[in-house]
Write a structure and sequence with these properties.
Blueprint lengths: L1 E8 L3 E9 H15 L15 H8 L5 H19 L9 E8 L2 E9 L13 E4 L6 H15 L1 E4 L9 E10 L2 E14 L9 H5 L7 E7 L12 E15 L5 H7 L5 H34 L7 H21 L4 H8 L3 H29 L5 H14 L4 H7 L2 H19 L2 E4 L34
Parallel strand pairs: 5-11
Antiparallel strand pairs: 1-2, 2-4, 3-4, 6-10, 7-8, 7-10, 9-10
Length: about 450
């Protein structure tokens, strides 16, 4: 291998021209021939016994070139990068320049770690929300407990908004039942907006045992088979139920929590909400400080570095999806996305993470930060405890360099944040400007099992 030229390019990339000599190329061709000859049929020879020159005569002198190049160029690239002392941080772009019996030459565009030029990094400022918890907030925290304790009880009256009607229904298009338009003993909460517009309103006022036909016109943005169609649903109400909300008192508290009094329960809910909001405010403040650090930095980030980080994000996301029992392909199908669309949506986050890493690395260098052996060992012990593993097992599977790098970045982040000043966060405007139209809620297209159901817009 010989590097014949080195040229610096834009965005922290270097183009290497690398030549692989004839001897190495010939050895690779012979290796490929021996590996693949068993798959080639040559008239007059048993399978796998045809001489290399016969095969090359039949298929051309370059029949083994591509596979031979693939055998050689990864090692040649790695050797060239090491020889030139380049810190390769991305996927190289390869281009074959010349190939023949005397060897081959290729160009490799190498993404190298850029040098970040720090701007102001100590004494930054960012808004931080002042956290308050009101009695109304605690009321909201109580709601899920009240809803779980609420019981549905049968009533002998006409159904009204807020009731749950237990219904049988079947939809007909010009007298013919259509797919997905039938349900039995379906519990429909009136006013929930889960069925197509007009359906729940016409069930309201019916009572147990009553049957009637309901005229419905599906929205234009419904799925193709029913979009804009006028249909009839035959509906029978089997039962009407109303929500019986419990009295929120000390007895209720004992049933839904470990506390004896409602006052103590409310106090605990308030304290936990305060802690959550403080943690969120702190996280938003810290993120804003790091964003400001990045904005003050000058650095050309190579595309290859972002691609590597995007791959990591995609892998992490796939693992989280699979942990929920579905494959990435199933998830993408459910979301109406392609892998390319998902990757494109992940790239901004990947770029942001790369920029933060480069900025914090520069801070660590500027401040002379180091990770001691004691800090490294303490982190290993923490990981062992977290994952319930033997310490030596953790030591064997965790990259020492990566862990020390993470600790270094954490130190730099803590330094920058500790020196930052929190300013008062401006309250968000609650009203739209005069004359400004509020965004309209739109209904999603039909995808659920029952054609009668219409999910509310997110």
């Amino acid at each position: 291998m010989k590097v014949t030229s080195v040229e610096k390019k834009e965005k922290s990339t270097v183009e290497l021209t690398i030549q692989v000599e004839a001897e190495a190329f010939e050895a690779a061709i012979q290796k490929v021939y021996l590996k693949t000859r068993g798959r080639m049929n040559v008239p007059g020879f048993r399978k796998g016994k045809a001489p290399r020159k016969i095969i090359e005569g039949m298929y051309g002198a370059g029949v083994f070139y591509e596979d031979a190049i693939n055998e050689l160029y990864p090692a040649a690239y790695e050797e060239a990068v090491k020889e030139q002392g380049l810190d390769d941080v991305g996927y190289p772009k390869m281009e074959i320049v010349e190939v023949g019996k005397d060897g081959f030459t290729f160009k490799a565009l190498v993404s190298v770690r850029p040098e970040a030029k720090l701007g102001e990094y100590l004494g930054l400022s960012a808004p931080k929300e002042e956290v308050k918890v009101t009695e109304k907030d605690i009321d909201e925290e109580l709601k899920p407990y009240i809803e779980r304790a609420t019981r549905l009880v049968s009533v002998k009256r006409k159904a009204k908004k807020g009731d749950t009607a237990v219904i049988d229904f079947e939809g007909f298009d010009n007298g013919t039942p259509f797919e997905g338009g039938k349900g039995t003993n379906y519990e429909l909460k009136l006013g929930s907006g889960t069925f197509v517009p007009g359906f729940e309103e016409q069930v309201t006022g019916m009572k147990a045992g009553e049957e009637k036909d309901i005229d419905i016109t599906f929205p234009e943005d419904y799925h193709a088979e029913l979009a804009g169609k006028a249909v009839v649903f035959h509906v029978k109400v089997n039962e009407v139920k109303e929500s019986q909300v419990p009295e929120v008192d000390d007895e209720f508290t004992k049933d839904v929590s470990e506390f004896e009094t409602l006052a103590d329960f409310r106090k605990d809910l308030g304290e936990k909400l305060q802690q959550r909001r403080e943690a969120q405010a702190r996280s938003e403040f810290e993120n804003a400080v790091i964003d400001q650090l990045v904005e003050n930095m000058e650095c050309e980030v190579p595309d290859g570095m972002v691609e590597v980080q995007t791959d990591r994000l995609m892998d992490d996301y796939a693992m989280r999806i699979q942990s929920q029992g579905i494959s990435m392909d199933q998830y993408l199908s459910m979301m109406g996305m392609t892998p390319e669309m998902m990757r494109a949506s992940a790239k901004p986050s990947a770029l942001k993470q790369v920029q933060a890493e480069l900025a914090l690395t520069a801070v660590a260098k500027a401040e002379g930060l180091e990770v001691s052996d004691e800090e490294y060992e303490a982190e290993l012990a923490k990981l062992a405890e977290q994952y319930k593993m033997e310490l030596e097992r953790v030591r064997a599977v965790v990259s020492a360099d990566e862990l020390k790098k993470d600790l270094m970045l954490r130190k730099a982040s803590e330094l920058v944040i500790s020196k930052a000043k929190a300013t008062k966060k401006k309250a968000a405007k609650k009203e739209t400007a005069e004359g400004e139209e509020k965004p309209k809620r739109t209904r999603k297209k039909k995808t659920e099992e029952s054609a009668a159901e219409e999910p509310q817009a997110e």
